[in-house]
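Lecture notes, unit on protein representations.

Consider one protein chain, 450 amino acids long.
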Amino acid sequence: MYIVIVGDGKVGALLTEYLSGEGHDVVVIDSNPKVVESAVNSYDVMGICGNGASYQVQKEAGVQKARLFIAVTSSDELNILACLTAQRIGARHTIARVRNPEYTRQLTFMREELGLSMTVNPEYEAATEIFRVLRFPSAIKLDTFAKGMLDLAEVNIGEDGILDGTPLYALHDKFKVNVLVCAVLREDNVFIPSGDFILREGDKIHVSGARSELAAFFKLLGIYKHRVKDVIVVGGGKIGYYLAQQLLESGRDVTVIEQDEERCQELSELLPKASIINGDGTDQEVLAEQGIDKCDACVALTGIDEENIIISMYAQSLQVNKVVTKINRISYDMLGSIGLETVISPKSISANKIVRYVRALHNSEGRSMQTLYKFLNNKAEALEFIVTEEAGVTGVPLKDMRLKKNLLIAGIIRQNKIIFPRGNDCLEEGDSVIVVTAGRFMSNLSEILE
């Protein structure tokens, strides 16, 4: 697929890496020549230096033959203008990054009247993911499928964990809960496990199941965390605003600590039910005054990764029930090694959302793809498909299907019921099916077969 990306900042660079890695023909446009040179040298892409909204620059980039045009510069207005120009030139689909909360309220208008195929707001998407984790704090990370019916939760098997040495086939008999271990990260290697796979101390696992079953499972493991009621948010930027808004609407108590006095005034007007504190969130005295040792969750959302890490480590030292850390540049692997578990990257969340859209466009049956999540340091994927007759997978018992290696059917949702697949189960047209895989890119359900 021919794809043009305008803006090679954090989100653009990650998109360039993902989409070029999946074999698409990618052209990168950016006004900074060093950024363009870096993209061309790092990936198999073309690069053009210039204004991404310019007619001449877009023509030079071949936008007239692009199936997808993506504008992810730091300017909302430039992204929208670039997409409108691309549509006139001939791009079939356009995606714009739109971050301003004022524009967020009129996204429907932008899609319907301006013809944008999709808009992406990294800050809003990040806030939504944090809110999802805070609603179920026992999980390091939580992904949701089938409109919330089935969850995929990430947890660690710690020292002296009762899962150590347990083969997966014995999991149900041992714990009497309907959950399925879908993926395991062990010493930087990802396994899509079979029934005879044996769990070990230090494994990071992804478990699928209904929320109630996962809660029961975590209680048996001794890692269940109670409902979050009081949240301290350090950083009153866009993510902090969106998150506080969602938390307040769900009945939580929210304290926002923000260093900029003018921004505090804005937040006081936007969030009248929240406690807005003007102060330095890295100052222990400020955190102590706001009762960090008594809160249920602390979310570090400043604009500096290092500050977020310091705040999170301090909160963990006080045994705060749930700690969430926002990062932009530092790797997940590095943070995991120092004990920070729930880490949120706005650029990764937005890039994954766009990749899901690209996968859907890539295949004529791609519309059957509903959801895509990358996890375990982007080494594994979980995808949700709607089963169609054309996919060629209906009516055959799973035990007789020749599934590709490193692939697992993690759940089937049929008529609002969750089915954990066994060998004699068959896929039926209209089912939602969750597929977990590692080491490959899928855009079509038929690709599960050898």
